[in-house]
């Protein structure tokens, strides 16, 4: 004979069931949040709406650097000109940190026209570029594999002295036009979404791509395009590409600067006041890397193609 449950027992069962539903909803929400956090760095769509905080904590540091830059501008002899240079360096660094290259092409297109001294403009770009690349390499250090990077560096170190010789003793305008035309052609081709994936990309190809960058670094202040293109042809994801291209560019910039200093002596020396341009460069790199992390691989490749095209056009304009 079945005995009907008492009212107190019914209430207890209902409470247990409702507690189970609540715990289940909590677990589902927690699992969904975990999935969103895991998928976002790779650029995968999770279907969950993005939650934007009114103030991102990662904006505090670049804001402090920008404030220091403004204070330095107020105490400089030509505050107006320096303020313009800081703005150009910051914006160029933010844009180019999204793709990891082309800072000199973007910043130089403006600095060479507004800076009264060509040497000052070149030194400004060197300080800013090395600063933003140093921060970027530190930021993505977990993606840097020395074994993968070594063949690219070997090729670059083997040829950069030849690039330095061409830049000092020869007329590199024709080479600028040729490199620029190739970058424009490849960039427009890649914008169609038709970037091929090579079936075999061995160490010889890595060395050759690095060797081309060793020449274009001193000649055009642009060591990264061929390494970037080759990494995309290998089908690597955006983090693996940056883990190779970013430290490669940094090392090639440092050795090229050292070579120019040895060959030109005091003409290549950098004045200490120029180190202030590292501040807006690092601030821009912080912002650009945050934007980079929000891109998926397809968006990253599209932006790389755009920058290759624009950089090629800028190089052709310099050579004409």
Q: What do you see in this structure?
A:
The chain has 320 residues and is mainly α. It has one domain. The protein is 75% helix and 0% strand. α3 runs antiparallel to α4, α8 packs antiparallel against α9 and α8 packs across α10. It is globular.
Roughly how much helix do the residues carry, as a percent range? over 70%
Number of separate helices: 12
Give the strand tally.
Answer: 0
C-alpha Rg (nearest Å) = 26 Å
Sum this structure up briefly.
The protein is mainly alpha-helical and 320 residues long. It is 75% helix and 0% strand.
Q: What's the helix and strand layout?
A:
Elements: H1 7-39, H2 60-74, H3 79-99, H4 103-114, H5 118-139, H6 146-169, H7 173-191, H8 203-220, H9 225-233, H10 238-264, H11 278-293, H12 297-319
Helix pairs in contact: 2-3, 2-11, 3-4, 3-11, 4-5, 5-10, 5-11, 6-8, 6-10, 7-12, 8-9, 8-10, 9-10
Defining traits:
320 residues, mainly alpha, 12 helices, globular
């Amino acid at each position: 004979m079945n005995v009907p449950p008492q009212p107190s027992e019914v209430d207890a069962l209902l409470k247990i069931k409702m507690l189970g539903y609540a715990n289940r909803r909590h677990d589902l929400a927690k699992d969904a949040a975990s999935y969103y956090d895991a998928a976002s760095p790779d650029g995968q769509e999770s279907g969950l709406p993005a939650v934007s905080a009114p103030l991102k904590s990662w904006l505090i540091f670049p804001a402090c650097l920008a404030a220091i830059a403004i204070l330095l501008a107020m105490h400089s002899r030509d505050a107006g000109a320096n303020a313009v240079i800081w703005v150009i360096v910051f914006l160029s660094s933010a844009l180019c940190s999204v793709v990891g290259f082309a800072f000199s092409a973007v910043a130089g297109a403006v600095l060479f026209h507004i800076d009264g001294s060509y040497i000052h403009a070149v030194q400004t770009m060197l300080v800013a570029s090395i600063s933003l690349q140093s921060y970027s390499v530190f930021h993505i250090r977990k993606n840097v594999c020395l074994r993968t990077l070594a063949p690219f560096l070997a090729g670059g170190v083997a040829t950069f002295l030849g690039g330095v010789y061409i830049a000092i003793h020869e007329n590199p305008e024709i080479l600028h036009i040729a490199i620029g035309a190739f970058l424009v052609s490849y960039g427009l081709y890649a914008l169609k979404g038709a970037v091929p994936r090579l079936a075999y990309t061995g160490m010889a190809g890595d060395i050759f791509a690095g060797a081309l960058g060793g020449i274009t670094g001193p000649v055009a202040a642009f060591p990264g395009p061929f390494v970037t293109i080759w990494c995309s042809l290998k089908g690597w994801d955006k983090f693996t590409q940056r883990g190779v291209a970013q430290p490669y560019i940094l090392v090639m910039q440092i050795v090229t600067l050292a070579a120019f200093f040895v060959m030109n002596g005091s003409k290549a020396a950098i004045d200490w006041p120029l180190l202030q341009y590292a501040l807006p460069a690092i601030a821009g790199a912080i912002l650009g890397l945050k934007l980079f992390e929000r891109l998926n691989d397809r968006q990253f490749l599209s932006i790389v193609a755009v920058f290759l095209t624009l950089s090629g056009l800028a190089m052709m304009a310099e050579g004409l």
